[in-house]
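Example (one chain per record):
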Amino acid sequence: MTLKRVSIAAMVVAGSVPALPQTPSSVWTLTASISPAGPRASLALNAVLRNQSAATLKVIDRTALADFRVAVTDESGALVPYTEHAKALIDAYEKGAAFRADVVEVDPGKEFRKAIELSGLYGDLKPGKYSVKVERVGWLQVSQGGRPVWPKEKELVSPSVAFELRK
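Predicted structure:
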């Protein structure tokens, strides 16, 4: 699979985001998986958007925290809080922080993948059983007319993925 990257610059000013079209639900699916990452066997969440359409689509690729929201729950069902640093970054993106974005062309049936380092979001998770979901937020793709397209709210949420951390 060959993904073609075309750089674009983007900046959103708080309160000035125009109403944008939303993507049809049948175009993308979002899945997640967990894998070891890095030398300390930290965890990476692998978010995968699959193009289910018959056309090449252009997905907008910014930083992981600008494009995805991750929810980790422990075995009691309690939501694990983000680190203060992750909260500050998410808050900045939601308030319209400037960012750089790429447009990645994804052919029919192909996937766009994004690895999200969980220790950067949650610090050191304690040993135990967890569940994780990921949601695509913000701009999703570029329309035929060249405008960004939003996913429908709560539409691109992955199924839960269970994982266990041992001592």
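Caption: The first helix runs from residue 64 to 67.
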